[in-house]
Amino acid sequence: QVQLVESGGGLVQAGVSLRLSCAVSGRTFSSYGMGWFRQAPGKDREFVATANWRTGYRYYADSVKGRFTVSGESAKNTVYLQMNSLKPEDTAVYYCAANVGGRATRVLRDYDYWGQGTQVTVSS
User: Fold this and answer.
1) Are the C-beta atoms of 34 and 95 separated by less than 8 Å?
2) Which residue from 42, 67, 82, 96 has the fewest beta carbons nearer than 10 Å?
């Protein structure tokens, strides 16, 4: 069983940075496909970022490309989402997710495990 615990959300002003963390229990995070998603009020959950740990390639939603970065730290078995130049439209609950197939995928239904989410609110 995989457990994912997100942290690092908060209320910030536009333009600042936040780093979200996703602590992974069970196997090392690099054996899973890991992704970040978000869900704003009244909207569907949407893809934000994922990484292919084997190749090192990162995939990002167009809305965050150039501002967000996904990374992992093996020593802490934790995946991060560094969010820079935050905008009010980034306001959402952010979730990390894992798939046992190890795929770096943008597709929500491909993921088997989800964290509880962490709220990010960006004021203008």
Assistant:
1) no
2) 42
For 113, counting Cβ atoms within 10 Å of its Cβ (0-12 exposed, 13-18 middle, 19+ buried), the class is middle
pLDDT digits (tens, 9 = 90+) for 8-32: 999 999 999 999 999 999 899 999 9
What are the pLDDT digits (tens) for 58-72? 999 999 999 999 999
Q: How many CB atoms lie within 10 A of CB 121?
A: 14
Alpha carbon distances (Å) from 108 to 17, 57, 80, 112? 25, 19, 18, 9
As a whole number of angstroms, the distance between CA 40 and CA 113 comes to 20
Contacts of 33 (CB under 8 A, 6+ apart): 50, 98, 99, 100, 101, 102, 103, 104, 105, 110, 111
Q: Which pLDDT score is estimated for 111?
A: 96
Count of other CB atoms within 10 angstroms of residue 89: 11
Q: Any idea of the CA torsion for 73, 5, 103, 83, to the nearest 10 degrees?
A: -60
Can you tell me the distance from the alpha carbon of 118 to that of 115, in angstroms, rounded to the nearest whole number?
Answer: 9
